[in-house]
Task: inverse folding
């Protein structure tokens, strides 16, 4: 069966309708010297059965967390996904839905977004949340652009303990803007952003201060003090959360003074999937709501008093005056946001707390066990959530390669991101790591 369902007769009827004699006539507008004269160098077609077999063969070359014991984190976390999440996503009314441009006939989609927004607000301690964004890195960059719209200042202060790839995206976003980006070096002893170091960078020209919690090393930052430093200078305090499971135990950023909270929602019911698609969440204070990118769904009642949902804010040029638009490169990640909604509803407040405690205890068990190995020590002394950094007396890349041969992904060597951390490995422990997994890892490290 061909992939294109049009018969020769169908094609001829369409050509006659537009006044063309052949398919080649459709390309007459392309200059002769620009046309491809040869056939494309493609293999012959396969039957469906042959194609499925070939795709399985190619897929078998991938290494997945199902075939390894994984201790990798760094913004992509291996969590258990309850089966109800995918069963809900695969319902056709959700799986095939698109951006609700006609909200009056998209009540189911709008309700799902509304509930997602509500859950994100409860999780982050903020007043309003949008309908989601592409992923955590671009959400961080958009938050900085939002801060600049609020105060029109030209200096951005970012902690070096913010995810390195997030910082790369921020620099790319701001490349054509007249903005100065200053990085606060993290403390080599604590692994956190020192308030006194931040104070030296923040002044009346600072638009925003950007801090990750827990930071890239898994260390817990002093958000309250850092937020006060930002506010004392009239700057916007932005908090980035790449591991939202941590909010099951930690105080919400909103309670600690954050003005904008963004992050990566992959941990909330979305699989690692080789890096995407992921889910960026974005929340802020009500007073800044009109500067927030994306769309916001609200609840209302119709003329008969029935509950309904509407697009309360939509910030694209086709909806509002161009000079007030806050459009960005993305639409919302609707299906991923729905997965997060189902996941958070299934766990509830108590379940999120229990899961966070389990993640913390797993990582602490591994941390303690590794400290008993000669040539291994903790790199930083700050409290951590489910990630931490060790320093080893061997070449990290060689060590990780050896572990991989034993079916263990032993973390990430940090030299690729921080030249001075050339003997350091970032490790993560989640509820997916059993005691047997961790004991096997420790034994392999000897």
Result:
């Amino acid at each position: 069966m061909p992939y294109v369902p049009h018969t020769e007769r169908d094609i001829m009827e369409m050509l006659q309708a537009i006044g063309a004699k052949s398919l080649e006539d459709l390309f007459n507008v392309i200059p002769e010297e620009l046309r491809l004269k040869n056939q494309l160098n493609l293999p012959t077609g396969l039957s469906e059965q042959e194609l499925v077999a070939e795709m399985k063969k190619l897929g078998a070359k991938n290494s997945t967390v199902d075939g390894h014991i994984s201790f990798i984190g760094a913004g992509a976390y291996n969590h258990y996904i309850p089966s109800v999440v995918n069963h809900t996503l695969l319902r056709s009314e959700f799986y095939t839905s698109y951006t609700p441009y006609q909200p009056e006939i998209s009540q189911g989609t709008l309700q799902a977004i509304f509930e997602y927004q509500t859950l994100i607000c409860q999780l982050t301690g903020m007043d309003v949340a949008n309908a989601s964004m592409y992923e955590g890195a671009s959400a961080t960059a958009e938050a900085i652009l939002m801060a600049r719209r609020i105060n029109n200042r030209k200096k951005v202060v970012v902690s070096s303990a913010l995810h390195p790839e997030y910082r790369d995206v921020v620099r790319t976003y701001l490349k054509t803007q007249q903005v100065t980006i200053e990085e606060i070096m993290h403390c080599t002893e604590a692994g956190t952003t020192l308030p006194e170091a931040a104070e030296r960078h923040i002044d009346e020209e600072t638009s925003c201060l950007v801090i990750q919690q827990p930071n890239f090393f898994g260390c817990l930052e002093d958000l309250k003090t850092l937020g006060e430093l930002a506010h004392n200078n009239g700057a916007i305090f932005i908090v980035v959360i790449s591991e939202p499971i941590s909010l099951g135990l930690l105080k919400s950023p909103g309670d600690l003074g954050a003005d904008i909270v963004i992050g990566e929602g992959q941990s909330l019911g979305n699989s690692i999937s080789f890096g995407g698609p992921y889910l960026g969440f974005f929340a802020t204070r009500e007073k800044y709501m009109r500067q927030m990118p994306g769309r916001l769904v609200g609840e209302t009642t119709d003329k008969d008093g029935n509950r309904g949902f509407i697009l309360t804010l939509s910030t694209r040029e086709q909806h509002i005056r161009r000079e007030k638009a806050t459009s960005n490169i993305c639409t919302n990640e609707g299906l991923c946001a729905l997965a997060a909604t189902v996941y958070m509803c299934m766990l509830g407040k108590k379940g999120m707390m229990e899961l966070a405690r389990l993640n913390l205890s797993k990582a602490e068990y591994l941390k303690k066990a590794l400290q008993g190995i000669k040539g291994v020590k903790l790199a930083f002394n700050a409290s951590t959530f489910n990630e931490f950094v060790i320093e080893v007396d061997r070449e990290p890349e060689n060590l990780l390669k050896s572990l991989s041969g034993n079916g263990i992904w032993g973390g990430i060597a940090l030299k690729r991101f921080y030249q001075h951390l050339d003997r350091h490995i970032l490790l993560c422990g989640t509820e997916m790591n059993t005691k047997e997994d961790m004991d096997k890892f420790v034994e392999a490290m000897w």
